[in-house]
């Protein structure tokens, strides 16, 4: 049972309240919930980027509480990819250099070729030397997706990946994310506000009042797939 509390001043805020979640290898899980519900906090805990106030987390069969920050980073290296709402590319690095970054922690032969292949896969084979600011939002998110998949991770976290994109671009980014996910066979944990998107996952959960509850997304037509995403 996982809990996360934070204190600000004299007040204690319970963000996650004794929730429980188990995700099987290869499964795709959508997590929905209002802004401020604690979705990003939950992803941070699941990835071992943050530590719980109470409860035990297991990643790839290892108890995260037994590892320090470096140990958790080593466990993630090459095995976990992230896609964020605001892309989080390093502004001074080219598209190619951004995609190469995760390989620094997980070195292998032919890194340049691997990174270039991933950029080509996301449709940016001609943009390898561009800086993030020279790319559109959709292109930046595609670089971020190439970066998330470049190590052939077992698990990908996506936190509102279309939240900063217009509906058409968002839909393309999502198609790409699901295509790659199926191709590589990763486990996908996806935070989204969008029901059409959530329906493409094996399982949908809603985070509300610190608890996860099963969720049945509304039957919305595909063309509204990313409308309403974002905050
Ligand atoms: N370190 C922190 N200190 C105080 N409040 C925090 C901290 N981290 C998150 N919060 C609060 O916890 C709540 C959940 O945040 P978050 O996980 O980002 O929500 P979501 O991703 O669902 O929008 C928010 O109200 C946020 O302000
Ligand atoms: Mg969030």
Per CATH, the superfamily of the domain at 2-86 and 153-224 is P-loop containing nucleotide triphosphate hydrolases
For this structure, what is the CATH class of the domain at 2-86 and 153-224? Alpha Beta
Quote the beta fraction: 15-25%
Radius of gyration: 18 Å
Determine the mean pLDDT: 92
Spatial separation of the terminal alpha carbons? 29 Å
β-strand number = 10
Number of helices: 7
Q: How are the strands of the largest sheet arranged? A: 6-7-8-3-9-10
Would you identify the regions where 5 or more consecutive residues have pLDDT less than 50? 223-231
Describe the structure.
- With 231 residues, this protein is an alpha/beta fold.
- The protein has a domain at 2-86 and 153-224: 3-Layer(aba) Sandwich (Rossmann fold).
- Helices cover 31% and strands 22% of the residues.
- The protein has 7 helices and 10 strands.
- It has a 6-stranded mixed β-sheet. The protein has a two-stranded antiparallel sheet with strand order 1-2.
- Helix 3 (95-104) packs across helix 4 (111-121), helix 3 packs parallel to helix 5 (137-149) and helix 4 crosses helix 5.
- Residues 223-231 have low confidence and may be disordered.
- The structure holds adenosine-5'-diphosphate (ADP) and magnesium ion.
- Residues 6, 8, 13, 15, 33, 35-41 line the site of adenosine-5'-diphosphate.
- This is ABC transporter ATP-binding protein.
- Residues 1-230 form the ABC transporter domain.
- Belongs to the ABC transporter superfamily.
- InterPro entries: AAA+_ATPase, ABC_transporter-like_ATP-bd, ABC_transporter-like_CS, MacB-like_ATP-bd, P-loop_NTPase.
- It comes from Halomonas citrativorans.
């Amino acid at each position: 049972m996982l809990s996360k509390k934070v204190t600000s001043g004299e007040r204690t805020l319970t963000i996650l309240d004794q929730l429980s979640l188990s995700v099987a290898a290869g499964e795709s899980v959508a997590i929905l919930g209002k802004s401020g519900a604690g979705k990003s906090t939950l992803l941070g805990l699941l990835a071992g980027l943050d530590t719980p106030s109470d409860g035990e987390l297991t990643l790839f069969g290892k108890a995260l509480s037994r590892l320090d920050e470096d140990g958790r980073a080593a466990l993630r290296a090459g095995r976990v990819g992230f896609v964020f709402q605001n892309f989080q590319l390093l502004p001074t690095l080219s598209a190619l250099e951004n995609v190469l970054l995760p390989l620094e922690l997980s070195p292998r032969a032919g890194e340049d070729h691997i990174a270039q292949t991933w950029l080509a896969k996301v449709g940016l084979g001609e943009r390898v030397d561009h800086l993030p600011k020279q790319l559109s939002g959709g292109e930046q998110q595609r670089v971020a997706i190439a970066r998330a998949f470049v190590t052939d991770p077992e698990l990908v976290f996506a936190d509102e990946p279309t939240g900063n994109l217009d509906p058409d671009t968002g839909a393309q980014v999502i198609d790409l994310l699901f295509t790659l996910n199926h191709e590589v066979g990763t486990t996908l944990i996806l935070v989204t506000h969008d029901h059409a998107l959530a329906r493409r996952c094996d399982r949908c959960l809603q985070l509300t009042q610190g608890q996860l509850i099963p969720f049945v997304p509304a039957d919305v037509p595909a063309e509204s797939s990313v409308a309403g995403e974002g905050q």
